[in-house]
Design a protein that fits this description.
By secondary structure, the protein is mainly α. Helices cover 73% and strands 0% of the residues. It folds into 2 domains: 4-36; 49-171, no CATH class. Helix 3 (49-71) packs parallel to helix 7 (116-135), helix 3 packs antiparallel against helix 8 (140-161) and helix 7 runs antiparallel to helix 8.
């Protein structure tokens, strides 16, 4: 085998052809398999315990505010401001003011630590609760329905952000 033409025209194949064809075959196989698969999706991560604690405290504070708003007379709410409400002799008015202050702190923590959809839902929920304290509650059933809808939206946003399925509508 003195020349390339002699090597290619002879009846025997060169020794390197077998490993080279194996490498080409393996590469083609890997390419064909990967081409048909969708990109891998990262598994959802469990919520950070600190953020989870903020979620739970936020929901508890909104529940306290909800209960206090229903208990406080609309006329009292119309005349009260937050500073005076915090020092009020009326335990329901004081509890409402404390819940609003706590909610404000928790919303700020969520702004820093939570994903954007959760923050948006929490801010909307906080705005609803604080607007209700300014206006008072005239129709308890309507207020409860709107409150429950906003709370469910927040819980859904939290569950979505962690890759969990939403709660069934019947469970709400």
């Amino acid at each position: 085998m003195n020349s390339l033409v002699d090597a290619l025209s002879s009846g025997t194949a060169p020794w390197w052809a077998v490993p080279a064809s194996m490498v080409v075959g393996v590469l083609l196989g890997v390419f064909a398999v990967r081409r048909g698969r969708p990109a891998t999706v990262a598994a959802p991560t469990a919520p950070d315990p600190q953020v989870r604690s903020i979620y739970v405290r936020f929901l508890a504070a909104t529940d306290r505010a909800h209960n206090a708003v229903v208990d406080v007379d609309s006329g009292v709410l119309a005349e009260a401001d937050l500073v005076h409400a915090l020092e009020s002799d009326d335990p329901s008015l004081r509890a409402l003011a404390q819940a609003i202050v706590e909610l404000d702190e928790l919303v700020n923590e969520l702004r820093i630590l939570a994903p954007a959809p959760v923050v948006d839902s929490a801010v909307t929920f906080f705005g609803f609760v604080t607007d209700s304290t300014i206006d008072g509650v005239h129709d308890c059933d309507e207020f409860r329905d709107r409150y429950t809808a906003r709370k469910s939206a927040l819980v859904d946003a939290i569950r979505d952000s962690h890759g969990e399925r939403r709660l069934a509508a019947k469970a709400r």
